[in-house]
Amino acid sequence: MITYRAVHKAFDKPVLRGVTMTVETGEMFALFGPSGTGKSVLLKTTIGLVVPDRGDVEVDGVSMYHGPKRALDAVRRKTGYVFQYAALFDSLNVFDNVAMGIPEDELARLSKRDTARRVWDVLENVNLDPHEVLSKTPSELSGGMKKRVGIARAIVGRPEILLWDEPTTGLDPINTAAIERLIHRLSEELKVTSVLVTHDVEGGLQMCGRVAMLEGGFLRFVGTPSEFRSCSDPVVRAFVDRRAAEAALDAMVETR
Amino acid sequence: MTVERQLADAFTPPSRLTRWFAGWGRAYHVTLDHAGALGVLTWQILVSIVRFRVRYRDVLTQTYVMGIQSLPIVFVTASLAGIVTSQQGGYQIVSTSPRYLLGTLVVQSVVLELGPLLTAIVLVGRIGARITAELGTMAVSEQIDAFKSLGRDPVAMLGAPRVIAGIITMPLLVGFADVIGIAAAMVAANLDGGLGFETFLYGARLFWHNWDLFYGFSKAVVFGFVIPLISVHMGLRTSGGAEGVGLTTTNAVMFMILTLLIMDAMFPPLMLQ
Question: Does A65 touch chain B (CB under 8 A)?
Fold first, then answer.
């Protein structure tokens, strides 16, 4: 279970203004919101990539920022993070990139053969042909392949939590659908707790058991997909309905 | 508040006094920020070395990149520096002093100053800028965050090998630059003014102190530590996309050259008294 308690974060201006919410164990949870509203920042506070100015994040009851020193390492060890643009290491080939996802101490114990087997299996699991990609560098891969390698790297360490930071950004509709199916399948097969940050509202609503919406640094909505669809809040409506979005945009222009 | 009023407020320039104080405040803040961060980075590198978290293979790779691949440019720089020193020194002393003093002048200049400093400045351009741009690109493309998310320490994996390689490589490059610079000066003195090799070496030995070599190599070790340290520090804190990488790399080069010149100026009072 992941609990965000009154998380505040400001860079040049406030981004998160006291976000409090809980993601249950084994749940698939989606986080929506306009660009620049702090969704990725909130996701990054889960594993200490961004440290909150105030507030705390608890993972399975252990405080990340006010608890034991080793809490952060322990949480990173059981978490897989899928970055928006995959964030593959340019200087390493696909094999080494994926193998990096295995925790350091475990990697030291594994034989070369076992490591190779594990990397091979996980590449097949994300629908990549290991023969084709294993020795390629990230610059030789397409956008969709990079995302899949990024996912493979995130799951090869057998995580209990998966954090997805806009995994379908920049992909064509077919690849977007393919990656969404993959996310759904992996989350069910691996029985992990998933937090998905996405702009693809329809995809998020179909895949997730609960969704939330951030707006202006505050949590605007938390509930089930059906509650989200029927919500009367105009900002939430603008995310569900294209016409509502255009009406909200017109209203903003008139106010100025 | 109307949009016009907000715009008017935003574009009203602050007074000169306010700008003066703001400028000093900013400079003070930036200096302390960098000094503190460099101190923390040095500590993290030391800890990663002591805990054997630095991969031997990465150090070897970086030593090759910094050392072997820098030999051609160090060769050219050192020989030209030696030739110019020899020609200008010859021009100065030809009618006033014994000609063997040219050997003294060249060897002292190369070993004490030109060898370490010119090699360091060459390394700033060839290695320092490269490290900053490389790590900066990794930072803006979230690769540094990816290292952290996978439980790896970017300082141990990326920073420490570069700093260790700098400390190993720089004295070797400076030794190479000293030999090449002196040899080139000797040949130039011979061709230009007809000064024999033995006369040149007699002058070189006449005022030679072994301490001078130690002094030159001490500079090399310090410069070899400072260049990768600043490059790693600047690279890891890069933000702002491609423009940010360019800006940080330019700033890093200026930062490194200024630091080298300041440290160079601190050596004589500390070691030549």
Answer: no
CB contact under 8 Å between B152 and A100, yes or no, is yes
Q: Are A58 and A2 in contact (CB under 8 A)?
A: yes
Residue A184 pLDDT > 90, yes or no? no
Q: Is A2-78+161-255 a domain of CATH 3.40.50.300? A: yes
The DSSP output letter for B14 is: P
Q: Which part of chain A is CATH 3.40.50.300?
A: 2-78+161-255
Ordered by start, the domain boundaries in chain B are 25-268
Please indicate whether, in this complex, the C-beta atoms of A87 and B3 are within 8 angstroms of each other. no
Average pLDDT over residues A123-140: 93
Q: Tell me the C-alpha to C-alpha distance, in Å, between residue B41 and each of A168, B28, B37, B52, B219.
A: 36, 20, 6, 16, 21
Whether complex ipTM tops 0.90: no
Note whether A83 contacts B148, CB cutoff 8 Å. Answer: no
pTM for the whole thing? Answer: 0.86
Beta bridge partners, A211, equal A30, A223
Which of B3, B138, B142 is nearest residue A85 as measured by Cβ atoms?
B142
